[in-house]
Write a structure and sequence with these properties.
The complex is a heterotrimer, with one copy of chain A (261 residues) and two copies of chain B (207 residues).
Chain A: H1 13-24, H2 28-46, H3 52-73, H4 83-119, H5 146-157, E1 174-176, H6 177-191, E2 193-195, H7 196-199, H8 206-221, E3 225-229, E4 236-240, E5 258-260
Antiparallel strand pairs in A: 1-5, 2-4, 3-4
Helix pairs in contact in A: 1-3, 1-4, 2-3, 6-8
Chain B: H1 4-15, H2 22-29, H3 33-49, E1 54-59, E2 62-67, H4 72-77, H5 89-101, E3 104-105, H6 106-113, H7 118-127, E4 130-135, E5 143-147, H8 149-155, H9 173-184, H10 191-205
Antiparallel strand pairs in B: 1-2, 3-5, 4-5
Classes of the chains: A mainly alpha (261), B alpha+beta (207).
C-alpha cells in the first residue's frame, strides 16, 4: 500500500504513530518497524524543521516496539506465560491506551478550533468606563507607597525558575590524559610498535580517542615514543622507546587536564 | 418604551471591560437576577430584530456587547491587536487536555501528549487561556492548571458545562480495530491467539 | 432595515477603544466621509428614538458609544461596586514595571511577567495610571506605555525622579533579553522621540 503523505504537520510522536498505524495498517510483528521508520523518515523530510523532541520520543517508542517484537519472535515465546510475557502485554496495552487517549484529544482539539474560529468573528467591546467616571472609581493606589512600588518592580524582575533539561540519566564521560597515559604505559611496552587505530580500536567515544591521542603526544614530547605516519591522513604508528630509567609514574602527569563530554 | 432598568443595563454593559455577571447587575439595579436575565434576553432579541451591527451575548458567565459575526470582515480591517494569531495544533491539543481534565499538572499533560509540554503550557499561560489553579496536595506539590474566563471568551461559550462532551470524541470501534491491528496483530503462528484477543478487546471497547 | 454600511459602523464603533474619526471609518468602509457623518447622525437619532441606555456621540474628533448621561447614577454605582478596589499583586508588579522601565510595550511587560497582561494594562489605562506615550519606531510599531500625571498625584510624588532607585539589583540575562526584545531597534534617535512623546502624553492625560 503506497504511503500517503499529507501536508498536515504532525505534532507529536503518538499522533505520528497513530497516523502511520491507522493509514498503513502496519503490522508491528511482520513489517512494522522498518516500514514505520521508513515512513517516519519520509515524513520528517517533508517537515521544514526537525523537532528534536518529537524525533527522540519517536525513537523511544520505536525501541519499545522493537523490544516487544524481538521478544515475541523468540522461539517458544508463544507458549511461555511467565510474568515477563504478561508484563509485555501490559506494556502494549498501555501504549494502546495512550494512543487511544491521544486520538480522543486530537479530535477534541479540532472541535475547540472550530468553536474558536466561529467566536473569533465577533469582537468584544472592552472600551471601559468613560473618563467622566474616573474620579468615582476607587483609588487603586490608596496606601501604596513609592517604596512598595519599588519592591513590586524588583519582584517582577526577579527571574522565575527556568525549566531545564534533566540530564542526570545521561552518564557523563569523564576521561583524563593521566589515565590514558597510565593505560599506554601498560600497553605500549608489551606491544612495541602499534598503529594508533589499533590502539584505539576498542574505544567508543570520540572524546576517549582524542584524549588517548593527547596522551600519545605527551609521551612523544618526553621522548618515550616515536611517531611515524604514512602520508597525510595515513595511520599513525606508535613505537615504544622506553622511559630510560625512573619517572614513568603516572603521577608525573598530574597537572594534565581532565576532559568531560 | 424602554424601562429604566433596561436602559441602565445597556449603559452598564456598555462601560464594562469584561462580561458582566447578571448577579452584579442585579445588585446594582436592585432587581432579582432572574429579572436581569429576562431583560438581557429581550434586549439581545431587540438588537437582532433591528438588524444591528452589534449583539448582546452571554459569554464566560456574563453579558457583553460584541460586534456581529457577519461583519468580521470590516472589523478586521480596523486594526485590532492579538486577534489573528491562531494557536498551533500542539497548543490546541494541550489546551483541550487542560479544559477537559482540569485541574491537571504539567506532568499529567505530558503523559498523554507523549512529549514535554513546558513550552506549550507557557504559551497558553502567556495568552491567558490557562492559569495556575492550585497545587497537588500529594508529594511534590505539582502546580495544577485550569482554564480561565478568557478561555471561555475565546471559545465564545458561557461556561465549561457547554463544552461538547468528551465522549463525543472517543474514537469509534474502527479506529480501535486499526490500532489493535497495528499493535497486537501477530503474524504466522500467533494469529489464532491474537485474533481471540482482538475480539475480546473490541467487544470491551465498543461504546 | 439597516444597510450593510450602517451595521459595519455600529460594529466598528462598538469595539473601538477610542473615538473613531469619520475619515477612518470612511476609509475602512470605502464610502465618502460626508456619508459616514450622515449615517452616524441617523444612527445616533435612532438610539434616541428607541430610548436606548447608550448614545452615539461625536467627541474628540470621532464617534463613540457611551452610556447615556441620564443613567450616570447607575454607572457610578457600577464604577464603585463593580470594580475591584484593590490593586492585585500582579497588577502592582505590572504598574511598577511601567513606572520604572517606561516607555515599555505590553509585550515587554508580559515577557517579564510571564503571563498575558492585556487585561491588567487595560485596567491601569482606564483608571488613568498609565497611558500610551508613543510607538516603538521598529517594525510592528508596538504601542509604548508610561505612567501619567494622575499616577504621580495618587502616589504622592512630584516626578518620576523621586522614585526610589532600583539600586544595585542586577536582573538575570533572560530578563534583560526580554526587556531588550522590543527595543533592539533604536539607539539615540529612539530615546529622543520617546522622551518627547512622554511629556506630551503626560500633560494630555491630566483630567
Amino acid at each position: 500500500m503506497p504511503y500517503e503523505v499529507t501536508t498536515a504537520v504532525f505534532e507529536g510522536p503518538f499522533d505520528l504513530l497513530l497516523h502511520l498505524i491507522t493509514r498503513q495498517q502496519v503490522d508491528i510483528y511482520q513489517v512494522s518497524l522498518s516500514s514505520i521508520v521508513d515512513a517516519y523518515v519520509a515524513e520528517m523530510q517533508n517537515l521544514r524543521t526537525l523537532d528534536l523532541e518529537v524525533a527522540t520520543e519517536f525513537l523511544l517508542i520505536a525501541a519499545v516496539l522493537l523490544e516487544l517484537k524481538a521478544r515475541r519472535l523468540l522461539p517458544g515465546s508463544d507458549d511461555v506465560e511467565d510474568e515477563e510475557e504478561l508484563a509485555l502485554w501490559e506494556e502494549r496495552d498501555l501504549l494502546l491506551a495512550r494512543l487511544f487517549e491521544c486520538k480522543t484529544f486530537k479530535d477534541a482539539a479540532a472541535a475547540l478550533r472550530r468553536m474558536m474560529d466561529a467566536a473569533d468573528r465577533s469582537f468584544p467591546r472592552r472600551t471601559g468606563l468613560e473618563e467622566r467616571f474616573l474620579d468615582v472609581t476607587p483609588d487603586l493606589l490608596a496606601g501604596i507607597t513609592a517604596d512598595r512600588l519599588r519592591k513590586a518592580c524588583l519582584s517582577a524582575l526577579t527571574p522565575r525558575l527556568l525549566p531545564h533539561v534533566d540530564l542526570d540519566h545521561v552518564a557523563p564521560i569523564r576521561v583524563s590524559v593521566a589515565d590514558a597515559v597510565t593505560e599506554l604505559l601498560d600497553e605500549l611496552p608489551r606491544a612495541g610498535t602499534i598503529t594508533f587505530s589499533r590502539l584505539t580500536a576498542d574505544l567508543v567515544e570520540r572524546l576517549e580517542v582524542i584524549v588517548r591521542f593527547l596522551a600519545v603526544l605527551e609521551l612523544y614530547k618526553r621522548g618515550w615514543v616515536e611517531l611515524s605516519q604514512s602520508g597525510n591522513f595515513g595511520d599513525l604508528t606508535v613505537t615504544w622507546m622506553g622511559t630510560e630509567g625512573e619517572g614513568a609514574e603516572p603521577a608525573a602527569f598530574s597537572p594534565i587536564e581532565e576532559y568531560q563530554g | 418604551m424602554a424601562t429604566e432598568v433596561e436602559r441602565a443595563i445597556e449603559a452598564i454593559v456598555m462601560v464594562a471591560e469584561d462580561p458582566i455577571p447578571p448577579h452584579l447587575l442585579a445588585q446594582i439595579l436592585e432587581v432579582p437576577p432572574a429579572r436581569v436575565e429576562e431583560l438581557c434576553q429581550s434586549l439581545a432579541e431587540s438588537y437582532v430584530a433591528e438588524d444591528r451591527g452589534f449583539e448582546l451575548v452571554r459569554v464566560a458567565g456574563g453579558y457583553r456587547f460584541q460586534s456581529h459575526s457577519d461583519l468580521a470582515g470590516y472589523v478586521e480591517r480596523f486594526a485590532l491587536e492579538g486577534q489573528s494569531n491562531r494557536l498551533s495544533a500542539a497548543a490546541l491539543e494541550t489546551l483541550a487536555l487542560v479544559a477537559y481534565k482540569q485541574p491537571i499538572s504539567r506532568a499529567q499533560v505530558s503523559e498523554v501528549r507523549g512529549v514535554s509540554v513546558d513550552g506549550v503550557m507557557r504559551t497558553l499561560q502567556h495568552r491567558g487561556y490557562v492559569a495556575e489553579v492550585g497545587r497537588d496536595p500529594g508529594p511534590g506539590q505539582a502546580v495544577l492548571y485550569g482554564t480561565t474566563a478568557r478561555f471561555l471568551e475565546k471559545l465564545g461559550i458561557d461556561s465549561l458545562d457547554v463544552l461538547p462532551p468528551l465522549a463525543q470524541f472517543v474514537p469509534g470501534p474502527e479506529v480501535m480495530d486499526a490500532l489493535d491491528a497495528g499493535l497486537r496483530h501477530g503474524g504466522g503462528q500467533h494469529s489464532t491467539e491474537v485474533t481471540t484477543t482482538t475480539d475480546e478487546g473490541l467487544s470491551d471497547e465498543s461504546p
